[in-house]
Amino acid sequence: MASTPAPTRPAIWPALILLVWNCLGVFAFVMQSNQDLTILARTDPLQARIWSEMPTWAWISYGLAVGTGLAGAIALLFRLKAAIWLSAICVIAVIAQFSYTFLLTDLLAQKGLSTALFPLFILAMAVIQLTYARSLGTKGALR
Fold this sequence. Notes:
Layout: H1 13-33, H2 37-43, H3 45-52, H4 56-77, H5 82-103, H6 107-111, H7 117-138
Helix pairs in contact: 1-4, 2-3, 4-5, 5-7
């Protein structure tokens, strides 16, 4: 009688790394949304102006990005299929959030292309989370 091997459970460390990353995103959102812009204006007047003029839809996109990113990471820890659609919403929200910063402000003209490096890293992390969630879904590791 041949026995079938027990399915291997995916490693938990990628989900833990994504959880920590997304917690940092939530922390950044809370700090940025509560920032005293008069203090920020002393050291970075351009950034203070951009944040003060940031439209409601961009703030909502930012909150949605970090919220669904965190929820998606938690769903990955619990191996839930919701991780896929939560991570997809996160990617869309990150793109919407940064579309304000890079398409509707003069940030790139004032500070140069290097200012896009960290936002590109943020987008890459969101895409990595979505790709990881989809791969687990394809393998049947999510319920």
